[in-house]
Write a structure and sequence with these properties.
By secondary structure, the chain is α+β, with helices and mostly antiparallel strands. The chain is built from 18 helices and 32 strands. Helix 4 crosses helix 6 and helix 16 crosses helix 17.
């Protein structure tokens, strides 16, 4: 288990005092946690070999160590120290004395049994792990290989589908299974007394391919899971009853395995020197302190509390294969103590070789969601395990680009990690933790010289730099690409990032301000001699320029240090500003508009590059007649940044039904019209700027009459918080929805004209119940519809939590923090946001979870997944959304008769008609989730997956219902 850092505050408080203190401490404290019993990392300063490894299938010797003199040359020799063996080669230590040596393609002949590392007058030796039987410490006078450049990418260990099918055969013979593939934990499944539902929280996470110059998002995942003990009344288990672990898994039908490398370039993570690149996040932003800004630099709690920063040191020491620390706000909210954990990769003990299950560290009963904001609330009774921060990368262990790596989640009930044979594991399930490296600016900001590696959509940014006499960088100048130690895509991103920073400095540098906390308005300007100045004579700019920060000061830029985003606000502190060493620790967010606003609004003005996506147009049969144009616009619009053309971030049931991003979120301008801009329709209000710092448009003293986002047309949105939900399109059932009453269409033309009704599904089943757009036609804000019928909607935020008012009371909760039937998380049954089951490709990794849980794709609907159905009444309607038993003989044999008799006399067919329709002929809400067969009165009845179940499948409607 990873150590858990903890800080305690024991003063008792009342509920009201607790809430007020919480808000105050969140402002002053943020992420404050330490590591009990932390030890000094440096025991002595003698060089040390941490690991020496031989990989037979990769023909590679790897020697890794620490404590060399900073930036020194480390010499690697055959044998032990006293052997004074032949030289194998050299490596260069970094500024912290860490070093890695690789000898590969081909590896050394003979392979050494032992190796010695020597630098600065000190030496250390170590046995070579997995050395072959014919290893030798006699180098035979073999000349050393060329000196490799300093390593820039550590193996992020196992994060993909490569385990059971070995390495990539780059000679053109496809993917060959390998008997030496990394072992996986056994599949126990859910056939016993327990079931696991597990999912990622967003449907897609993004990470940079290169972080030397700038970083948009760190390698980061969130795995959510619940363990259910089956029964008539299933029980969701807590940490004192069950432990959960994750490790790498694979899918033998993974579509990436069928890709022909002769046609498609999938092995994009391979470097010219034959090694596999994952990420350089731990080599640049972490030691450079770039992400320290998102954690406060001091801890006001009394000893023995520890500060968390710098991240590249104790108590956490975020290094290779270790995720960023994530705070547990629930502990702070209830106990006024804040704990934090880091989640590791399963291969941290030995990348590409080990697959050690990692324990899911956190369990949350209730989850505070930006409680200090006007829209905030506590997501109550979520009751899930959460592994936040495992650092997945976009390339798998064979060097393939695969955004859909799988992990195997295992549950044990004896307090021990899983046995290798799975003998103490009570349930398993595999789930995708998606990660894409396509979130890059290269499509528009790469040099035109890099067009061979992907078309550059415009030369306008390049032309603007050249007009100012500033150099445009291309990938061929990347020293690491020249050295063969990074793939081409990484070098293209490196060059692109430099071009972006130079352009940003050129356009905005004279407006940069020092740290501004809003106490002085307008924010003070830099003195003229300190302002960012970049020109042909000084192409890297003056010290206050971003380009200078990255290229001269060796501090990679993270955009969100100045442009706030809730996505990186792990402590939910809100926008802050202050110098390093303060609570803001280098952030300068209140003088700048948010990341969402500057990105969406700025790029939205370039309509030729980012054309609008038209609303769906339907023919009489419900087919979308302009879908091809919409998909083309999608690739030119959202998918340029939200990955992407290869990743296909939106890939679930909504996409299957013809919906695209704008149908839920609106246009670029509407998404960008957030709380750091002017009030919508109010020409008097101003956006956040250095002259108007911190004036965030939320309810508050400055705007006493401003209402809620969902009800006030002036209130801008908050990214990541004011989002469409299931209920925005699934506005009710066949009897009661946003535009029908008692199953009949409203006779109010304006009501029908306000929404885009889905006429039919993809199988041409008549719909007229669900919507194709989550907001009303013509709504300037694209405000998500909030339905009155909550059958298929997220629950409302309660008025209060434990006596403390919820600021966002009455609003819909976010789908990703909502629970439903019996407390099961909504995503656990329906799939992650943007990837709701089923994925249209039956072989897709996304579908594996549902297949394992119930034997078919789609929403988890088979009751036996969690229930012992024989212990339930045969006529129950206590299932999710008011469902009856599914695929259960007792129900279709006898149980539904009484239901039908008592409901038929009610308007619209009562509860049965809500899904099966008032005419009993079925609707899109009664479609079979899988092929079903029934034997009724000695006759077989069948219904295909996707076919609405109607009463005349078995009955005569005339005899049964008199019509």
């Amino acid at each position: 288990m990873n150590p858990i850092a903890q800080v305690s505050q024991t003063t008792p408080t009342t509920g009201t005092e607790h809430s007020g203190r919480l808000m105050q401490l969140l402002v002053f404290v943020g992420i404050l946690f330490g590591l009990a019993g932390a030890t000094t990392a440096w025991a002595d300063d003698a060089i040390e070999i941490e690991r020496a490894n031989w990989s037979n299938d990769r023909d590679r010797l790897t020697v890794r160590g620490k404590n060399a003199p900073n930036n020194a040359t480390v010499t690697i020799r055959y044998g032990k120290i006293e052997d004074n063996g032949a030289e194998l080669g050299t490596a260069r230590a970094d500024s912290d004395g860490d070093w890695t040596f690789r000898f590969t393609n081909p590896g050394p002949d003979p392979v050494p049994c032992d190796v010695t590392a020597q630098a600065g007058g000190n030496a250390d030796d170590k046995n070579v792990r997995r050395a072959p039987d014919n290893c030798s410490n006699d180098g035979g006078g073999q000349p050393p290989p060329p000196v490799e450049p300093p390593p820039v990418a550590q193996d992020v260990s196992i994060n993909s589908t490569s385990q059971n099918c070995g390495s990539a055969d780059v000679s053109g013979n496809g993917v060959a299974c390998n008997e030496n593939a990394v072992g996986e934990q056994p599949i126990v499944g859910n056939t016993g007394d327990h079931t696991i539902v597990a999912i990622n929280d967003l449907g897609m996470h993004c990470g940079d391919l290169d972080t030397r110059i700038s970083s948009i998002l760190p390698p980061f995942q969130v795995l959510l899971a619940q363990v259910i003990r089956k029964g008539a009344e299933p029980e969701i288990l807590s940490p004192d009853q069950v432990e959960l672990f994750y490790s790498a898994a694979s899918n033998p039908t993974d579509p990436i395995l069928s890709v022909d490398p002769n046609i498609d370039d999938v092995f994009r993570g391979l470097t010219a020197d034959g090694s596999i690149y994952k990420t350089n996040f731990w080599d640049y932003p972490v030691p450079g302190g770039t992400y320290d800004a998102f954690y406060p630099a001091f801890n006001p709690f009394p000893p023995p509390a520890f500060d968390v920063t710098p991240l590249a040191g104790p108590p956490f020491n975020i290094t290779y294969d270790v995720g960023l620390p994530v705070p547990n706000l629930e502990n702070f909210y209830f106990s006024q103590e804040l704990t934090a954990v880091t989640q590791n990769m399963p291969g941290i003990l030995d990348p590409y070789v080990a697959n050690a299950p990692q324990e899911i560290q956190e369990h949350l009963r209730d989850k505070p969601f930006f409680t200090s904001f006007p829209f905030g609330y506590v997501a109550n009774d979520i009751n899930w395990f959460e592994a936040a921060g495992p650092p997945f990368a976009a390339y798998d262990d064979a060097g393939r680009e695969n955004p859909y790596p799988l992990v195997r989640v295992q549950a044990t009930t004896n307090g021990d990690p899983p046995n290798p044979d799975g003998s103490n594991v009570v349930a398993t399930v595999d789930t995708v933790l998606p990660i894409s490296g396509e979130a890059s600016c290269r499509n528009c900001h790469a040099s035109s010289m890099d067009g061979n590696f992907g078309p550059v959509r415009t030369t306008d940014p390049e032309d603007e730099l050249e007009a100012a006499g500033l150099p445009v960088v291309d990938s061929e100048t990347d020293p690491l690409l020249i050295a063969g130690s990074v793939p081409v895509d990484v070098a293209v991103e490196w060059a692109t990032d430099i071009n972006v920073l130079r352009l940003h400095d050129l356009k905005h540098g004279d407006k940069y301000v020092p740290f501004c906390d809003g106490s002085v308005t307008p924010c003070p300007e830099y003195p003229p001699n300190e302002r960012c100045t970049i020109n042909a004579a000084n192409p890297n700019g003056s010290p206050s320029c971003l380009t200078n920060q990255a290229l001269v000061q060796n501090k990679p830029v993270v955009c969100q240090v100045c442009h706030y985003t809730p996505a990186l606000d792990l402590a939910q502190l809100g926008p802050l500003a202050g110098e390093p060493g303060t609570i803001a620790n280098g952030r300068n967010q209140i003088a700048h508009q948010s990341n969402s606003r500057v990105m969406h609004n700025h790029h939205g003005q370039f309509t030729e590059l980012f054309p609008s996506i038209d609303p769906p147009q339907q023919d009489a049969n419900g087919a979308i007649t302009n879908q091809e144009d919409r998909l083309t616009a999608l690739e030119q619009n959202c998918y340029q940044c939200h990955p992407g053309k290869n990743t296909q971030c939106m890939r679930g049931a909504m996409f299957n039904g013809g919906m695209v991003c704008s149908d839920c979120h609106g246009s670029l301008e509407q998404v960008g019209a957030d709380f750091t801009g002017p009030l919508i329709g109010d020409s008097e209000s101003e956006p956040v700027s250095p002259s108007n710092p911190g004036d965030f448009k939320l309810k508050g003293p400055a705007y006493p009459t401003l209402g809620d986002f969902y009800t006030d047309s002036r209130q801008p949105r908050v990214p990541w918080a004011n989002e469409p939900g299931c209920g925005s399109c699934h506005t009710g059932d066949a009897n009661d929805n946003a535009f029908t009453e008692d199953g009949q269409p409203m006779n109010v033309d304006v009501e029908l004209a306000e929404v885009i009704v889905n006429k039919a599904d993809v199988d041409k089943n008549v719909d007229n119940i669900r919507l194709r757009q989550a907001f009303r036609i013509g709504d300037v804000k694209a405000t998500p519809i909030v339905p009155s019928n909550k059958r298929f909607a997220e629950p409302e935020v309660p008025e209060q939590f434990n006596g403390t008012p919820n600021n966002g009371a009455g609003n819909p909760k976010l789908y990703r923090v909502s629970t439903g039937h019996g407390g099961v998380m909504c995503e656990g049954c329906h799939g992650a946001t943007h990837a709701e089951w089923p994925n249209g490709n039956p072989k897709a990794n996304d579908n594996v979870t549902a297949m394992q849980l119930q034997g078919h794709t789609g929403t988890i609907s088979d009751c036996t997944t969690c229930h012992v159905t024989s212990q339930l009444p045969d006529d129950t309607q206590d299932g999710p959304h008011g469902m009856h038993l599914v695929d259960d003989r007792r129900f279709w044999k006898e149980g539904h008769k009484d239901l039908a008799k008592r409901e038929n006399s009610r308007p619209g067919g009562g509860t049965c008609g809500a899904c099966h329709g008032s005419d009993h002929l079925g609707t899109v809400l009664s479609r079979a989730a899988a092929d079903r067969s029934f034997n009724v009165e000695s006759r077989n009845r069948t219904v295909a997956a996707g076919e609405p179940v109607a009463c005349d499948l078995c009955h005569s409607l005339e005899k049964s219902f008199g019509g």
